[in-house]
Amino acid sequence: MFITRRRRSFISGGSAPVANPVEAPTITGSPTLLYSWDFADNSKISKTGVLIDSIAGSDGTLMALGNTGTNRPALTVTSENFQAASFSSATQQFLFSNGLTQAPGWSFCVIVKMTNVSGTQRILEKSAGASAVSFDRDMLLLVPTVFRSQKCNAASSSFANSTTANANLHCITGVSKQAAAGTVISLDGITPATGGATADSVVNQDYFLIGASRASNAFTAYANMSMCRVLVYSTELSNAQLEEIAVWANTNYGTPNLA
Predict the structure, then answer these.
(1) Could you tell me if 189 and 43 are in contact, meaning their C-beta atoms sit under 8 angstroms apart?
(2) What are the tens digits of pLDDT across the range 127-184?
(3) Mind listing the pLDDT tens digit for each residue in 71-105?
């Protein structure tokens, strides 16, 4: 069993609060929540007009993400009436932090609605910013027709694909495993898919990004999406723990739980 300490009631077909923060779920085994950002928590957001200058960590986490100028995403409200950050590839909008030291082996959850499902779009990435685009990074991306969790070192990569992607509001969870192991992805609670084995990168992953990639010391692969919530855990969650998150997302955001 897990407990949601404060939750937003979602009624299908009804109105949900726009700016009502939702605390992260308490998961069996109490895995460490490393990063957490809630785009409905105005107390954590610094903005100029509707453009997000930075967002501080929620749920007691400390890392902030930010950007400047036209590269800042804008606050928006989804058709489901949730406050979110709107990212556009046309104006290369993304949020990031750099100068980090990040260990291999982690898990993620995003509550996200893609604007479109065409092209390759980087949703979430933990990367070595100086490395080439397919090396030394863990990422969640959209490739035509599917969401993909991918792990790359300097010589090889492995990935797991979700079922068919669409532009609905989704809960996407995944794991990038340590050592000679691969990746896991689940879309809306569906039994997780698992990728093949790939050794950890030996290069420190010094960037964390939402909505773009950092490769060869440049930003690229921008996303078109509305992001409601991001959770990053410092450990590899089990399939049962990923399902607990899917139940939490269904309760608070109305995303399907197709377990």
Answers:
(1) no
(2) 999 999 889 999 999 999 999 999 999 999 999 999 999 999 999 999 999 999 999 9
(3) 999 999 999 999 999 999 999 999 999 999 999 99
Element (H, E) at 175: strand 169-176
Neighbours of 76 (CB within 10 A): 16
- In angstroms, rounded to a whole number, what is the distance separating the alpha carbons of residues 158 and 37? 27
CATH class of 58-253: mainly beta
DSSP 8-state class, residue 73: -
In the chain, what are the domain boundaries?
58-253
Cα distance between residue 24 and residue 245, in whole Å: 9
- Start-to-end CA distance of the chain, whole Å, equals 16
Is pLDDT of 5 > 60?
no
Residue 231 has which token pair? 């959770």
Q: Evaluate whether 78 touches 84 at the Cβ level (below 8 Å).
A: yes
- Please give the single-letter amino acid code of residue 149: S
